[in-house]
Amino acid sequence: MRQIKVENVCKSYDGDLILDKLNLEIPSGQFFALLGPSGCGKTTILRLLAGLESVDSGKIYLGTQDITNVPIYKRKINTVFQQYALFPHLSLFDNVSYGLRVKGVNAAKIKDRVYDVLKAVQLLGFENKKIRSLSGGQQQRVALARAIINEPEVLLLDEPLAALDLKLKEQMLVELIDLQDKLKTTFVYVTHDQTEALAVADKMAIMNVKGEIEQIGTPKQIYEFPSSRFVANFVGKTNIVEGVLKQQNGNLEVEVEGLGSFAVFVPQKKGWMIPEKTIFMNIRPEKIYISKKEIPNFSNHLTGKVIDIIYHGLSTQYNVELRTGRIIKVFEQNEEHFPQEDIDYNDKVNLYFQKENVVLLER
Ligand SMILES: Nc1ncnc2c1ncn2[C@@H]1O[C@H](COP(=O)(O)OP(=O)(O)OP(=O)(O)O)[C@@H](O)[C@H]1O
Ligand SMILES: [Mg+2]
Q1: pLDDT digits 0-9 by tens, 170-184
Q2: How does DSSP classify residue 63?
Q3: What pLDDT does residue 82 have?
Q4: What is the DSSP letter of 356?
Q5: What range defines the domain where residue 276 resides?
Q6: Ligand 1 near 18 CB (within 6 A)
Q7: Which residues pair with 333 in a beta bridge?
Q8: Distance from the alpha carbon of residue 40 to the mean position of ligand 2, in angstroms
Q9: CATH number at residue 229
Q10: How far apart are CA 35 and CA 329, in angstroms?
Q11: Does ligand 1 come within 6 angstroms of the Cβ of 39?
Q12: Count of the separate structural domains present in the chain
């Protein structure tokens, strides 16, 4: 198994620079997700990896092999696109076996392989069905089967579940994770849906609108320790508050105009964390505790008025307006274990959060 390495790759379309000196390492044998807003260049990256598009400059490596100019059919990289591109008039068997037939593999071997992959994607027994008689989820599985039958070293998946409804999407996500686990093939999964990326990825890269990689990490690292305001906002809901970093008796605080000072805790002091510098505090809505009561032992305290209550089933979101007019989002789990307070519109509430739950971001 070999890792993919993209080195200083530039790519433009009609004079528009889409990727400017892109560097990216994709570990082998993992489920890697590439997440970014629409138009940032995700599909372009996949097309370059697959060999469907050529770079303007830079290199692409598979392990130590330079594959920058290796033609598409000689790369052990297969792709599943958003549009499945199946042959609707052919049977499932003929669609899946197509790649092997083109290669001239003998009939008995083809049959064995087809049965193997159909088993992997849970479609045994469907081999004689016509594509157009299959559901969206089944067609997606056929597309997967067709992509893995050649035993690629890398499988590129470009928003493969975009056409499916939520329920089917969730089911297919679980199946994809299982499939990757079984095959140990490197999966590169492109999506602009952050919940999908968080759910599937061993590791993920977040791209910004300019086609730059903002951060690479595990879903947990990305969600809990975003490295920039863009990442914090793009992955999950959050509160971002601007303030000035202060050092008080050896402790770090952030002073926010109109709201006072907040204690913060910095496990790894970064070079830019210098006193008197303007920075952002990132506080996730589920890390804030809302109550009409006064509760001791929290590092930080705010007060405000409830202006929206949004019921999400699992949780309830409260939008709380502070005296400065700023709105803070708070999530509260809807659990039965301990009785919840009745909080209504216009109620005056206290918001509490611990200094450990504030992530400082460079402005
Ligand atoms: N063949 C092409 N010719 C000209 N411009 C292109 C071509 N393909 C892509 N682009 C442009 O390159 C940019 C990146 O496109 P790309 O398809 O890689 O985005 P994406 O991140 O996959 O977006 P989405 O999430 O919407 O699929 C876009 O501005 C797009 O308009
Ligand atoms: Mg795309």
Answers
A1: 888 888 898 899 889
A2: T
A3: 67
A4: G
A5: 237-362
A6: yes
A7: 315
A8: 8
A9: 3.40.50.300
A10: 24
A11: yes
A12: 2
Q: Are residues 272 and 223 in the same domain?
A: no
Spatial separation of the C-alpha atoms in residues 36 and 222, rounded to whole Å: 13
39 C-alpha to center of ligand 1: Å? 5
Q: Indicate the residue type of 135.
A: S
240-244: average pLDDT: 97
The total number of residues shown for the chain amounts to 363
Which residue in this structure is represented by tokens 């686990």?
181
β-bridge pairing 57-62 and 4-13 = antiparallel
Q: Which of 317, 280, 300, 301 is nearest to 349 (CA)?
A: 301
Q: 3 with 60: CB under 8 angstroms?
A: no
| Rounded to 5°, angle at Cα 304 from 345 and 321 | 75
This model's pTM is above 0.85? yes
Per residue in 132-177, pLDDT (tens digit) is 888 888 888 899 899 889 889 999 999 988 877 888 888 888 888 9
What does the block give as tokens for 335? Answer: 């659990």
219 and 248 belong to one structural domain: no
Overall average pLDDT of the 189-196 stretch: 92
Continuous segment of H or E residues that includes residue 107: helix 107-120
- The dihedrals phi and psi of 73, each to the nearest 5 degrees, come to -75, -10
Q: What is the largest CA-CA distance in the chain?
A: 78
